[in-house]
Each structure stands twice: as structure tokens, then as C-alpha cells.
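Schema walkthrough. Field components (list of strings):
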Amino acid sequence: MGRVRADATRNLERVLSTGARMLADDPSATIAAIAVAAGVDRRTVYRRFASREDLMAAVYGARYDAVEKAIEAARLREAPVEVALHRYVEGIIAVNRKWPVETSRMLREETLHERRRGLIDEVDAFLRRATDEGLLRSDLPPGWVATILPPLLVHAAEDLSELSAAQAADVVVDTLLRGVGRTARS
Amino acid sequence: MGRVRADATRNLERVLSTGARMLADDPSATIAAIAVAAGVDRRTVYRRFASREDLMAAVYGARYDAVEKAIEAARLREAPVEVALHRYVEGIIAVNRKWPVETSRMLREETLHERRRGLIDEVDAFLRRATDEGLLRSDLPPGWVATILPPLLVHAAEDLSELSAAQAADVVVDTLLRGVGRTARS
DNA sequence: CCTAACTGCCTCATCAATGTAGCACTTATA
DNA sequence: TATAAGTGCTACATTGATGAGGCAGTTAGG
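Field assembly_structure (string):
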């Protein structure tokens, strides 16, 4: 009852996907557990990925690929700030749903630091532009928006699960810009 | 060079404190690593805590004690909503600094579910009151504010480290209610 | 002063997870 | 149809963390 060739690419995909889910849920998830959840033999995982580290790197890489695509699609440098912001938020929410990773663990990965740096710079530059063009307040601690945005998108992806990515983005952008307070105070 | 009695309580305190830090930073941190960081022998940790689980339970318990105190001090049921909100935010930020725990791991702890439930209900009730009294918008997905508040406080505690808890609370409450957008859009 | 409470250090058994190896079997592809 | 790629399954060695035992030494409290 050995399956084969056509499933080869499919298996790899499933290991990556379920691996991402499991590792996000519990970073110390066993390779065996991931293999079972992916409906694949543990040995197969090791045939594709040299080590545990290698699998995690692949998962993180897949996520970063998706993030890069989302950022490109948002056209953060050229598009009108409101449009770019919404597209970015929507894109990252979708990424967080397809590639949910435990962020704090990922940040420790040395090999991704340079890549990460590039993406962060991109977003920071955008947020500066948004501030300069009057979309965002300029009286907040520097980096504050950049700090709260990612976790906001993580929780939006998880807890607004009944909404589409676009609808969730509506909520996020709205509450981000206008806040959850009813009336503007002072 | 064996130290003793007076340090006994101090040692326990240090193990708990550094244990919280380390486990927050990496939930799979070794008991040995925690012991070293606390300047204590590994055996001593096991003398105080029957098992790894026991230590984590103690850490979570210490955090929950602090959270309960903060909620009590905020007087969520009686105090004016603006005041209560600010005191709650400030209190939880302080707790997050003194007892930083990896939240997602903690939520899985069965033994704390009932206790957690009580605290959640308390906060939920307060948020409802705040909505009824007109402080918060009522056109948002149910539970949305309750969802984004905790992670917001976590990141405020970490990334606004140069600000006092009270100052950080100012920022959080302000951005939470008014948002980070410059002008109110229709 | 002397006993009881602790601690540090060394050791040891146990167990779970990692990573490898080899064999039998199935299917795409040339 | 034959070959090669890929999988499942059943071991196996290794490593690292857990938890416990024992002993000498130090100090608070009677």
C-alpha cells in the first residue's frame, strides 16, 4: 500500500501546510505528530527535509514568500495610501490564515533576518508616507503603529474567522484609523 | 559554599520571576537554563516544584493573582468607564511587565480555565457597560474589542518600555479610542 | 551552641524525540 | 514492459531533558 509519484508534490505541500498549522499552534510539535496530521509517514518528512530546522525554515520561507507577494500586490510606494493600506491589511490577513506561524519563534531565525529587514523597511517607509500625507497621526511614539499592526492582523485573521479577508480588513482598517471609541474626545 | 535559610524565600521568588521571563521568551526553555539564569541549582528548582508542569502552573498562578488584583483595583463595575478603562490598561501593562508569559501556551492549561473564565467575564461585562454608556462604538463585530485588547497590552508593555506603565496606558487608551488616523472619515 | 532547614554538586535511571537504515511495494514515465 | 522515483513500515542508535537520591557544608533560630 505504498502511494507514489503524483502524490509526491502533494505530500510535500501537505507537510508544509499542516506543519505550519501545527508549529503555529505549538512550536514544540513533534515531527511525528506533524507527519500523522499530514497523513504521511514520519520517514517521508525526513526524506523531504533534512532536519527539523530545515522544515521550520521551509515553513517560514513559504510564509515570507506570501508576505512578499502581498506587499508587492499592495504597491505600498505608489498606490494612494488608503488603498495601499487596505490592500496590505487584507493581504496579510490572508497570509496569516494560510501560513499561521508562531511569530516570536520565527523572529529568532537568524537566516531570515535580512529578508525580514527588507519587508520591515518597506512597511515602515509606507507608514511614514501615510503619516506625511496626513492619513496617520504624527503625535504618537515612533514605531507605535508598526508595532501594533502585525499582532492586530494576526488576531483579525484568527478571531474574525467568519468574515472574508476583505471584510476583516474593513474592520481592521476602520478600527485602526478611527478607533473603537464612539465620540472624538477633545 | 552553600547558602541558606534567608535566601530560601528569595530563591523561590527568583525562580518564579526568571522562570516567567524565560518561559515567556521560549516556552520550551529547560529547567536547567532557568536554574542557571536564576543563579540557582537545578536541584533546588525541583525541590520547590514537583515537576516542570508544577513550575509553569505556579508561574501562571502568579500572573493570574496579579491580573485579579489589577482588575479589582480598576473597579470595573463601579468606577466611571473612562477611569476604569485607564486603570485596567495601566494595571495589565504592569502585570505584563512583571509576569510576561507566553499567552497561547497558557490558554491551554485546563486547570486555569475556570479562573480564566471569571476574569474574561468580568472584562466582557465591563466592555458591555462601556458600550452601553456610550464610550465604545456599538457597530463592531461582537467581541472584537475584547479580542484586540489583550495583545495590544502585551505589545504596549514590551515596545513602549521607555514609558512608565501609566504613560504607556495613555498611549494605548488614546489610540484605542481615537485610532491612529488623523481625521475622522465620515 | 547545636539542631533543623536549605543549598550546591555529582550521579543515575528513564523516557521521548531526532535522525538513519533497509526492505517491500506501487506507479509514472521512457 | 522495464526502470526509477517515491512511499510505508519496522527497527535502531543517539542525544538531551526530566526527575530523584545522596552527601557535605552553611546558616537561622531555639
